[in-house]
Amino acid sequence: AIGLVVDDALVVMENQIRRQEELGEDPRTAAINATSEVGRAVTMATLASCVVFLPMLFATGLAGVMFRPLSVVMCVTLLLSLLDSLTLNPMLSSRFLRPHKKSQNAVIEKLYISFEKTLVRMDNGYRDLVAWVLESPKKVVFGSAALLAVSLLLIPFIPTEFMSEQDSGQIEIVVELPVGTRVEVTHTVMQAIEKRFKEIVPAEWVTNGMMWRDGSSSQSSMSAAMSGKSGSSVGTFMASLCPKDKRSMTITQINEKLRAEMADIPGINRMSISGGGINAKLIGSAKPMSLNIYGYDLAASSAFAERIKRLMEKEMTGFKDVSISLDLTRPEYHVVIDRAKAGAMGIPVQTVADTVNLAFGQNKSAVYRESGDEYDIVVRLRDEDRRAEPDLENLFVRAANGEPMRLSNVARFEKKPGPLQIDREDQQRLIKVEANITGNDLGKATSALEKRLAEIPVPVGISTAFGGSVKEQKESFISLIGALLLGVMLTYMVMAAQFESLVVPLIIMFSLPFGFVGAIWVFALTGFSLNVTTFIGLIMMVGLVVKQAIVYLDYALQLIDHNDWDVKEALKEAGRVRLRPILMTVSAMVLGFVPMAISTKQGSEFWQPLSLTIIGGLIVSTVITLVLIPAVYYLIYGKKHSLAQTNTP
Known about the structure:
Layout: H1 7-22, H2 27-51, H3 61-86, H4 88-96, H5 106-135, H6 137-152, E1 170-176, H7 183-200, E2 206-214, H8 222-227, E3 234-241, H9 251-262, E4 270-274, H10 278-283, E5 289-294, H11 298-315, E6 319-324, E7 330-337, H12 339-344, H13 349-360, E8 363-370, E9 373-379, H14 389-393, E10 396-398, E11 404-406, E12 411-418, E13 423-425, E14 428-437, H15 442-454, E15 463-467, H16 468-499, H17 503-508, H18 512-526, H19 532-563, H20 567-598, H21 604-637
């Protein structure tokens, strides 16, 4: 808001000093007349900038959570700046702002005269440009339309993603060895990972040291906690690096090198390398690509997940670290009851299940209370009595006649692999196929995967849906598109109420598409993606790009309505008078975003695309507005002498 809060005061003060120097008014009279003359324009421009933030207050999903405070702060700040520009600023200007007096310093005076002559030539030059535009308004409109059409052709080439991945300086490597691997073997693998890491990452880049752990618990790392993996076969390596401006490689580049160097370490079943960015914290998934597979039959769902994994790894490019959330490598003993034998002996199936659960699981039998604290008392076999398969086979169950019966007499035992855990979502069993994305953006990768999935027959009883960043991106984009359209509508309504016309605001809205043209060019030239952050920039731009057209056209309408000027002459004079405040306000807004645009510090990945999007939109829309708005207005009202006769809907 730094560049925005001074805009209204700039317009008022420029008009005041112009009236003092050109019309010879005293400071007090100039302050009153200048504020009255531009009061409607600055009020309309500020309200237009504020109303675009109102829909963001009701945005859903993570976009609403992240940018709702920004909307409140911007609205309050802009409204207070408007109040200042119409009250306090004119009062102070009437006291201290005086016309230019010849300076005693010859150098300063010469510079002032030279600069003023340049500005006057620029004002007159723009007046002549408007005169040329009014002679060929259709050429200007068609030329602008052609520019818009060509720019729209670039949209399919713009990358899209949920959120720009930030270089936080954090590296996390999670490796999984075969289930049951001894912790000593995992320890050896983690030592190899540490050695490879030190070969790639210089020691001076590591700030807070590095740490690794073999035999991770689900709480030892973010990735482990998200995946639910734990045990002696899981190892976690973490390192914290210096800020990105103090090293020659980004986290993404370092991760790619680590991935290539560690691929040949023996014994690793799965490996995931992430940068610990904001996406993982926001959506609860360390990998941006996530395909959810729903189905009750775990065997069928697992086979389908494996097929998709092979597709992503071997038949498609851009997917790395592809993994499946369901791990069927955990050895299990399945007790298969012979119901005929059990029924003949009067042993219910539930009795067998309860007996096995009591012996090898545990059963809460009582509660011990002491000093207000409660402790559960559980019953189960001793550790030495439940270590191997014979312990299960020799377990006794009680028959109907009260006689104990060996479990092996009524059941057989099968050793099968089983899942470490079963995930559920919306009361459905869920398997996730997750992957990191390299060399491509999330939007194109999702589209490519959707096309390939359409070619694969889905088994009966199984359904698929995208999750993770893909799901959040779709939900956020739908919400933000609604906010953008509502912002455009509210902006139009504000201008229609102020101008008391339905056509004039529509003319001003012609400058809006060219703000998006500037943003498209920024995306095309810089390679930035369209994500939630840059989408917020587009919404903000709706209220900013119409400011210049409002300031210009409001003065032209005053000349036409109150001074009976000819339309053509009014448009030319408005261009001469309003060029300076337009350039001043645009410069203030652009310069206010420059520090974020050129920043290379940590977190710049988040704000740099937003600021460059707004800068590009402001510059392009201002250039086009200065020639397009006079042309469109003249085409509609050129042969009429009074707007009052024509603006009745």
